[in-house]
Write a structure and sequence with these properties.
This protein is α+β, with helices and mostly antiparallel strands. The protein is 37% helix and 22% strand. A 6-stranded antiparallel β-sheet has the order 1-3-4-12-7-10, with no helix packed on it. A 3-stranded antiparallel β-sheet has the order 9-8-11, covered by helices on one side. The chain has a two-stranded antiparallel ribbon with strand order 2-5.
């Protein structure tokens, strides 16, 4: 679920923590162009980078290629940082720059290698420092708050307390509060998903299998690549924590919505 992005002209964030692009946009532009900061946050961060058509891993590769072609070294700095956070490896980035030397020009590629060298060194230093730091706490109901994307959810769904662990770990997750009848679309996770119910009652179902009722304290594990959905009971809200590992910058593949007929049958059979 959860995930971080970066606009084209945003400066490098602190390497010690995952970047918060929305906050960075407001920090850099809010005092001069608050509307531009707001549009950047809502359109670029919350829409374009979250669209399921491309994984964030692939979006980072495309963005880095475009910035190298345009010779935008300052923007490239921040997007190399973001690419590493999105699961792009150093080897992939170096290979991309090498390939682009023959299509975007030798000077652009050489300049990009210099920026990559600085970024890799900073990232390596931050990783070493991170091993000695204190625990990082993700407070309950912490921001940024977001409503479930209409194409991926039916009914009321609010997502808070998003997090992503620092390398070499690849964990991510968040808290989702469903209103009565609220539910996800069918989807899968490349490395599986764990659901921990905090309150209320709900339903989880994998494709071709019976639906299962969920209650407070229940834990559901959905295996890697298995098509499934989950959500609240028809007349009761449910809040759960969803945990999924990142693979190549991707945590979820969205599919079609759960129909009212499918939901109704699942609700009846899981009582």
């Amino acid at each position: 679920m959860a995930q971080e992005t970066k606009p084209a002209e945003v400066a490098s964030p602190s390497a010690a923590k995952p970047m918060d692009p929305g906050a960075r946009a407001h920090q850099l532009m809010d005092d001069v162009a608050p509307k531009l900061a707001d549009i950047t946050d809502k359109v670029l961060f919350s829409d374009v980078w979250e669209r399921p058509g491309l994984s964030k891993h692939d979006r980072s590769l495309v963005t880095v290629a475009a910035l190298i072609a345009m010779g935008r070294a300052e923007s490239l700095r921040s997007h190399l940082e973001l690419a590493l956070q999105n699961g792009v490896t150093r080897e992939e980035l170096v290979e991309e720059i090498t390939h682009l030397a023959f299509y975007t020009g030798w000077p652009n590629a050489v300049a990009a290698i210099g920026v990559a060298r600085e970024t890799f060194a900073r990232n390596q230093s931050a990783s070493a420092t991170a091993k000695t730091t204190d625990a990082e706490i993700f407070k309950a109901n912490s921001g940024p708050f977001s409503a479930g994307e209409p194409g991926n959810f039916t009914g009321d769904a609010k997502i808070t307390s998003r997090y992503r662990t620092a390398p070499p770990s690849h964990g991510s997750g968040g808290t989702v509060a469903f209103g009565p009848g609220g539910r996800t679309a069918w989807h899968s996770h490349p490395l599986g998903q764990t659901l921990i119910v905090l309150s209320g009652h709900g339903i989880v179902q994998t494709w071709g299998s019976p639906a299962h009722a969920l209650g407070p304290g229940d834990i559901a594990w959905i295996p890697a690549g298995v098509k499934h959905w989950h959500g609240a009971a028809p007349k009761e809200a449910m809040t759960h924590v969803g945990i999924a590992d990142v693979q190549n910058g991707n945590t979820v593949t969205w599919m079609e919505k759960v129909s009212d007929t499918q939901y109704g049958e699942a609700a009846r059979s899981s009582r």
